[in-house]
Amino acid sequence: MSYAQLIISQLMKSLTLPARRLRSGLSTRFPAVSLSAFFLCVVITQSAFAYTPEQTVAAWVAAIKRNDVKAAMLLGTTPEQYIALSDDLANEYTDTPESNLAFAKNFEILLAPDAVDRIFVEVQPSLVGLNVYRDSFAEMGNSMLAEMGTNADAEGGTALPPDQLAAAREVFAAFQGWSMRTDFSDEKRARAAIVALVTAFRAVNVRSASDWAKLSNDGRIEKLSFALVAVKDILKAYDLNLDKLLGSIAATPGKQTADEADVRIAYKVFEARGSAVIEMFQRGGEWFFWREIW
């Protein structure tokens, strides 16, 4: 069932209520009003939810940009999947003494008043060696580019066309330049990243399993937005603005059949201009990012 169908079914239930009340002699005008309102709602709902493939991509990007995990999940999953995820989150922690103990243990450091200092003490010894990974990053990137440009990948994919390969090389060069000019051993940057993580977690305002259990299903999914906030602010500590990258994305239609479509995206990272093609698959009038629904 699609989201449009789900909403329409709920509208039908509510709009047929006045017709049932006719038996009580309340009004003889309700059936016509209900029927007209219902069909109007159907048209509005279908038009509101019938995103084109490129509109789906654009809406998903916009949701990630505003840290709206719930909206991103609604765009990326079926109603059944969304409900299953909600149930899994509800079962993660319950309002029991055992669950509260587990929550306190799992999030002990983040819940501590001196969380920033405690985390910094743990990561400080490894900071000095972080810059050495830049060389391995360059080697890995060059290997990936060579594979994308010459041979099919292990899963049967095809080599990138010349224009996409050129864009990929430009983007990789931009990231390589960023990594080489960024001092990952800088303690100030590390502390700023830790502050970002702790601040985002505390903003969730969930201090126990009991707090988690009191949330609604939608509320739990909304709380996951803290992870996006944390990632974005951690990257900012190292001069990488994810929102700026997301804001540069433009989605345009490519080739399309009844059930499959290509969406071309263009984006900018640092001074590099990248491009890619996203495959979309249609089910029940809605478009998804994967062929098989998990």
Please give a handful of descriptors for the protein shown:
flat; 4 strands; alpha+beta; disordered N terminus; 294 residues; four-stranded antiparallel beta sheet; Nuclear Transport Factor 2, Chain: A; single chain
- Termini gap: 15 Å
Tell me, rounded to a whole number, the average pLDDT: 80
Low-confidence stretches: 1-48
Helix/strand order: HHHHHHHHHHHHHHHHEEEE
Assign the CATH topology of the domain at 52-92 and 248-294: Nuclear Transport Factor 2, Chain: A
> For this structure, what is the CATH class of the domain at 52-92 and 248-294?
Alpha Beta
Structural class: alpha+beta
- For the largest beta sheet, what order do the strands appear in spatially? 1-2-3-4
Please describe the biggest sheet, giving its number of strands, its sense, and whether it closes into a barrel.
4 strands, antiparallel
Structure description:
- The protein contains 16 helices and 4 strands.
- Among the domains are: 47 residues; 88 residues, Nuclear Transport Factor 2, Chain: A (Roll).
- It is flat.
- A 4-stranded antiparallel β-sheet has the order 1-2-3-4.
- A hairpin with a 2-residue loop joins strand 2 and strand 3.
- The chain is an alpha+beta fold and 294 residues long.
